[in-house]
């Protein structure tokens, strides 16, 4: 049986036989499409799945991450068609690649910013230069626990020399030992960068940056970078925490809000009533929904506890925001499923 493959934006569909891969069908009919290995190892042929019946063949996890799959990204070379199918080419911003580095860094500062959140700043001593996109994360290996590698997002801009990480101190975990076992001058092994939830600049709609707890780290990097690059679109930064004692980094955020008219900062307390007008009561997703009854046209960056990320995704998808405009990292504790150790 003959099917059709439509590439969004192309003038007409191309025919394909059932079981044929998207890439083979397109190339056989002279359609230009990015590819390289044709074996599911390189990721060059990534595209966005829009609709239709498909079957995905085995591929390398390095070519297509779980986060990308959740956003509807597929490999054209490893996707068979079993009905009429539509796909969309990815923008060039979806193909950002940085050299992988393993670096020796030295602790410059380790500050307490709340009762259970630490701010770690590291100076790169060897293994650089380190390039990354705002919103990505790295793997940290501390000298007192070399067997336990933890993932933390960079909070600094990519153009800043000092690496900054926000770490929630978890009793019984590696992070719970940082105050007593890591000091200024100690060395930390850092490798990276990793992650696909990084800033995309080519979008005209409002930018929603939603953080839960220490999810503020990548959100800080994203928003700071967007402002520093002069992006003119409206930016709404939402920080959700349980109580007043969990709020951190506000002075800097308010300073940005004063200096950049296109930025609005919203802080939500879920478990206690606000004591002043600069706070909102409710979950961060409830506050976001109150401000945006219709989220159509927005581009969202989400970082924080899985429940928060999942709820925000549900709201965005329900309003028709496409998966390509929703970029998310869920933060897990070390005892939870794989992810970044945080909120």
What does this structure look like?
The chain is α/β, with parallel strands linked by helices. The chain is built from seven helices and 20 strands. It has helices at 22-28, 66-70, 178-181, 216-228, 250-259, 284-291, 306-318; strands spanning 2-7, 14-17, 46-51, 54-56, 73-75, 79-81, 85-89, 101-114, 117-126, 137-141, 149-153, 163-168, 187-194, 207-212, 235-241, 263-269, 280-281, 299-304, 326-332, 340-341. The longest helix is centred in the middle third of the chain and has 13 residues, at 216-228.
What's the gist of this structure?
The protein has 343 residues and is α/β, with parallel strands linked by helices.
- The largest sheet has its strands arranged as 17-16-15-14-18-19-20
Taken as a percent bin, the fraction of beta residues is 25-35%
User: Could you state the order of secondary-structure elements as H and E?
Assistant: EEHEEHEEEEEEEEHEEHEHEEHEHEE
Report the span from N to C terminus: 51 Å
Number of helices: 7
Bulk shape: globular
Count of beta strands: 20
